[in-house]
């Protein structure tokens, strides 16, 4: 009996002690990432992450260049912050998103983008569905062998973001030190990688995951494609004009001996195969060989973004097209492919554009041009322009 009394007394005094020392004991909350909370408020909630890793991908989409860097919600969240952070430029004025804007399908409405030391030498490529392609090289001239390696080259460019280590610029190691001293990066790198240590490889991995997460599969094309066995069948939700444009796009042309089309379609799918509409990795250039802000020719530009989201939902283009931004309407783009000129010095023109050694002449009529335009517009979705997980967190 004495032992029971002693034990009950001990419990009683323990409970009294807890209540008297801290009447708000149950209301104490430990904030693990205070700097993230201060910097981003409710735009980033590390306890309720946006879905980057498990988005719905249609079963007919089979191309993927992830290459050993699968998307992880934590790492992609870090990538989002890096993508929008102007601290990644030498003078804190330019971010990746300055040139790749969500409102323009992650492209730029201007022909050339503004960097910290001038304007870019090529138009900013759209980043829609970068993951869903056989092509693993990036930039218009394919100089980056992976998306990971591409992501930090603009940062290390003297004109763009200024950590080049040349022309009086500081090098990338200075950027790492800069980020290491920012509180929210200490927390985000710990959250994503289990360590506060920042490296270029970690930055590349995170940026690449965020960019690969930017996908668009809510278009009129996707709604029609989901109802058929293959893209060659008529889409029930398409108008007659849209189905005609689809057939023209998919069907190879027939040429005579001098490269003039005499039948068939126009064969866009030879380089931009459905349903991803990415670029064939073995493509040559498309005959646009001008140099932005310079003279002479450049025949090295053999890559392009997916043809998805060429236009917004209102039909206006997501900025100018081609590496020189030379075209501003779908009609002028189609007109270019309709008559290919064999320019002197262009030894890298794609063979499909020079049948029988002649520049192709598609001889399109107005009905065919309008049908192609109508079809290309079906490739645009809506969600990519408004989804908060791809928006500016600052």
Automatic annotation (TrEMBL):
MF terms (GO), sorted A to Z: peroxidase activity
InterPro entries per record: Cyt_c-like_dom, Cyt_c-like_dom_sf, Cytochrome_c_Peroxidase/MauG, Di-haem_cyt_c_peroxidsae
Annotated compartments: Cell envelope
Domain of life where this protein originates: Bacteria
Domain Cytochrome c: 74-183, 240-380
Organism: Flavobacterium myungsuense
Pfam families found in the cross-reference section: CCP_MauG
The protein's name: Cytochrome-c peroxidase
Alphabetical keyword list: Heme, Iron, Metal-binding, Oxidoreductase, Peroxidase, Signal
